[in-house]
Amino acid sequence: MLNLATAQALLEAYNCSEPPQIATPEEQMQLQQALQVVVKESDRQIFGVCADSLTDGLEGLASYLQALDQQADLQFDPLAGPVYLKFNPSTGRCYRDAYTGPHRGVLVSCQSDFEQGVNDTYGHLPLDLFSASLTAKP
C-alpha cells in the first residue's frame, strides 16, 4: 500500500489542464490506490464531475463512490449535453447543471478537520478510473 506522501505525489500529476494518460493496468491500480489513501486520510470529500452526458457523469460518480465505500441515490431528470455534477457525501446532496467547459473527469476535494491533515483537490482524474476497461482504450 502506498504511503500518504507517495499517494499525494501521484495524484498531483493530474492537477493540471492536460492530465497524463494512464498507459498500463499497473498505473491505473496505482492511481486508484493513491486516491483511496488520501480519501482515507481525510475527514470529508466533495466530488465534481465533468462529463459528456448525464449518464456518463452518474456512472462515473457511482463507480468512484462504490470504490471509496460511499453511497448515494443519484437520480435526476434527463439533461441533454455535457454536464457538471457536484456531490457532497456528508449531506447526500448532488447538484447538476449543463457544462460548456472543455474538461472531462472527476475532481475530488479532500478536507480534514486539522490543518496538518489532507486538504487538497485532486483532478481531473479519469471518469472511468475504476472501470476495468480503462486501460483497454486506444
Question: Can you walk me through this structure?
Answer:
It is a single chain. The chain is an alpha+beta fold. It is 28% helix and 24% strand. It has three helices and five strands, in the order ααβαββββ. A five-stranded antiparallel sheet has the order 3-2-1-4-5, covered by helices on one side. α1 crosses α2. It is globular and about 40 Å long. The model has no long low-confidence stretch (mean pLDDT 90).
Query: What is the terminal-to-terminal distance?
Result: 29 Å
CATH architecture level-2 label: 2-Layer Sandwich
Rg from Cα:
14 Å
Number of strands: 5
Question: What multimeric state do the chains show?
Answer: single chain
CATH homologous superfamily annotation = Dihydrodipicolinate Reductase, domain 2
